[in-house]
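Hi V.,

Quick status before I head out on leave. The structure for the redesign project is tokenized and pasted below; the design run finished overnight.
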């Protein structure tokens, strides 16, 4: 997911997407601990997607509190 897509998401969808991505990341991390994943870069990309989503949420909350 690219930043321009994240910026256009409404707040409710952003929160939902954060929960989905976190769940997917936790599942992949657990699966990787049990047996090595074929492509570990997928875990890294999911972790970065979660960080992007959280960054956007933080930007929005700071913008609201600033006003």
């Amino acid at each position: 997911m690219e930043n321009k897509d994240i910026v256009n998401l409404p707040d409710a969808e952003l929160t939902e997407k954060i929960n989905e991505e976190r769940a997917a990341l936790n599942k992949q991390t657990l699966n990787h601990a049990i047996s090595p994943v074929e492509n570990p870069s997928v875990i890294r990309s999911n972790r970065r997607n979660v960080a992007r989503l959280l960054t956007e949420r933080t930007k929005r909350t700071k913008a609201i509190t600033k006003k």
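Above is the designed sequence. The first helix runs from residue 3 to 7.

G. will cover questions while I'm gone.

Best,
W.
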